Amino acid sequence: MTNKIISTGFSSLGAGFLFQILQACLNTDFLNIWLQLNLIQLQIALLAINAATLGVILTKIRDLIEKSQAGRGFFQSTKKQILLSLKEQISLICLAILLLTVWSSPVAKEYIPYIDLTFGSLVSGVFIYSLKILYDTVKSVIVIVDYDPAPPKD
Questions:
Q1: Cα 5 from chain centroid (whole Å)
Q2: What is the DSSP letter of 154?
Q3: Which of 132, 91, 92 lies closest to 8, judged by CA?
Q4: Nearest residue to 94 via CA among 121, 129, 53
Q5: Cα separation of 35 and 104, whole Å?
Q6: Nearest to 146 by CA among 64, 69, 51, 24
Q7: Whole-angstrom distance, CA of residue 138 vs CA of residue 144
Q8: Per residue in 25-67, pLDDT tens?
Q9: What's the whole-model pTM score?
Q10: Residue 119: CB partners within 8 Å, gap ≥ 6?
Q11: Backbone angles phi, psi at 78, to 5 degrees
């Protein structure tokens, strides 16, 4: 589980860095300005969407447990992953607030070289990580919707 978080974090950070390089090549700062103005609201909206979607998933899981009489422990790992996803999103919101605060600080600008590249990459990475969480949630909805408790026919 920790390896997956680290892997997702580094891949998101790498993608964020590539977006910063692309932005520099195109001589624009649109993404940085857009993220500075909108990231926290977007993350809160993604958290709300994720929480609502997870509510639907948990309801469906509850129905599956009752129909199959599998017992409470049957979806324990799924429940742990759901909680982890919510914790990740809340942590990303806190991290984004911290990063955006430091990025806008005149003191930080004085002491951190390449501050726009550094913090642009970090903030873009946080946004990409948030999108990956949403993507994983959507995948779980598809798995639940496609679930057929009947054994496949040969």
A1: 10
A2: -
A3: 132
A4: 129
A5: 12
A6: 64
A7: 10
A8: 999 999 999 999 999 999 999 999 999 988 888 888 888 777 7
A9: 0.87
A10: 99, 102, 103, 112
A11: -65, -45
Amino acid occupying residue 56: V
Amino acid at 100: L
Q: Which residue has the tokens 């994983």?
A: 136
Find how far residue 134's CA is from the centre of its chain: 6
Q: How far apart are CA 141 and CA 32, in angstroms?
A: 32
How confident is the model over 116-143, as pLDDT tens digits? 999 999 999 999 999 999 998 888 888 7
Collect all residues with Cβ–Cβ distance below 8 Å to 127 and sequence separation of at least 6.
Answer: 16, 35, 39, 42, 43, 96
* 100 closest CA partner among 45, 47, 33: 33
For residue 96, how many other CB atoms are within 10 A of its CB? 21
Q: Is 69 left (phi over 0), alpha (psi -120 to 50) or beta?
A: left
State how far the Cα of 45 lies from the Cα of 133, in Å rounded to an integer.
13
Q: What share of the chain is helix, strand, coil (3-state, %, to 5)?
A: 85, 0, 15
